[in-house]
Amino acid sequence: MWLVLIVWIIVIFVATVLISQYIKIYQREDVATAFYVLFITMSQILAAKIGDFSIGDFEITAPVAVLIFPFTFQITDMVNENFGRKRTHRMILIAFFTQIVMTIFIWFSIEIPPAVFWGGDPATAQQFWLNFFGSTVRITAASWIAFLITENLDAVLFAKFKQLTKGKNLWLRNVFSDIPTLALDSLIFVSIAFGGLFDIWPVIWGQILTKWFFGVIDTPFMYLSRGIISGKVKLFGDLFNKTIKSKIEN
């Protein structure tokens, strides 16, 4: 688990730097939207796997997607911080439509029979693919409902806290917009996806605690993002930024 945590920190660091550097140079949220769609997509795929997470003696049960999903809230906060609520809602809507298309493509892959040579037995190969990608309609519906409600609510709360604090105390709006929405997301998703199949409360609490953990420790990355965009943190020189900008534009 420690290795997973280290890799998670590296991935979030790199993603935060790339998104922030792009925002600083172009004053647009294009790359943020791209990473947002990527993380939402992977969360959708990994949501069906329930894993055991343990750090020392502390062990909880939760969907594997909890490793990725909290970062989507950081991206909405980054876009909200720099471009406002309307653009954040637009990004969420774009991501939602991509998930509909992704689900259709996965359905295509399930409906098309596998070739005879793939896995030896076509029936076994088809069952493997179905087990891997064939999330039920119930799980997909749960994911979409939770996504639309909580991501948009997070955008509203973040904007409200920013207004109330007059743009100060970034950590306050980051944490207190994420904490309730991450908990609500777990409650909605697990209840709809797995309610009646087994005792869902251990999974709900496991998911909430894991999301809170990853949701809170992403706060330093928000400050890193603000530092890069404002120019107070310079990981790359001006020459590097100009070179990258010219390469992209050409």
- What is the radius of gyration? 20 Å
Straight-line distance between termini: 43 Å
Q: Low-confidence stretches at least 5 residues in length (pLDDT < 50)?
A: none
Shape verdict? globular
Total number of helices: 10
Question: Strand portion, in percent?
Answer: under 5%
State the helicity in percent bands: over 70%
Structural class: mainly alpha
| Mean of all residue-level pLDDT scores | 81
Please list the strands of the largest sheet in the order they lie side by side.
Answer: 1-2
Order of helices and strands: HHEEHHHHHHHH
Number of strands: 2
Number of domain units: 1
Give a quick account of the main beta sheet: strands, pairing sense, barrel closure. 2 strands, antiparallel
